[in-house]
Amino acid sequence: MSSTPTEIRYHVNKSITVEQFSQLLSETTLGPRRPLDNPECLAGMLEHADILVTAWAGERLIGIARSVTDFHYCCYLSDLAVSESVQKSGVGKALIQMTCRQLKHNCKVILLAAPLAQEYYPRLGFDQHPSAWTCTAEHLI
């Protein structure tokens, strides 16, 4: 008996649970850099995202693109996570394309690449920016 691959479905702004989000992140190299031990933070990340594009294989969440944006000038693609079990199948590219379809024509997409994804984004047309700066809000208060 041969198994047929499950069709991947994509949704924009479909609600997901903190548990689904956490499980997906744990299946990626992004997981160690996200607060998996802080459900309150994960809930806030989901609640305050402006664009949430998800990829599903059956009932299983296999990919997410979570963005914060003004829709006109800039869109910060803060999380692009695809389960390692389906990476290199076009899911990440489709998630980014669906995110971009939610934006006005000249809106810039900005992201910080995970160390293992440094070479992925140029293949999609992203240009590397020479400087980026981060710190916690607490540090600036």
TrEMBL record:
What domain of life?
Answer: Bacteria
Give the main EC class: transferase
Against Gene3D superfamilies, the record matches this protein to: 3.40.630.30
Protein keywords: Acyltransferase, Transferase
Which EC numbers does the record give? 2.3.1.-
Keyword ATP-binding on this protein? no
What InterPro entries does the record tag this protein with?
Acetyltransferase_Butenolide, Acyl_CoA_acyltransferase, GNAT_dom
Classification via SUPFAM superfamilies: Acyl-CoA N-acyltransferases (Nat) (SSF55729)
Q: Does the keyword Ligase apply?
A: no
Instruction: Supply one GO molecular-function term.
Output: acyltransferase activity, transferring groups other than amino-acyl groups
User: Which ranges carry the N-acetyltransferase domain?
Assistant: 8-141
According to UniProt, the name of this protein is Preprotein translocase
Species = Obesumbacterium proteus ATCC 12841
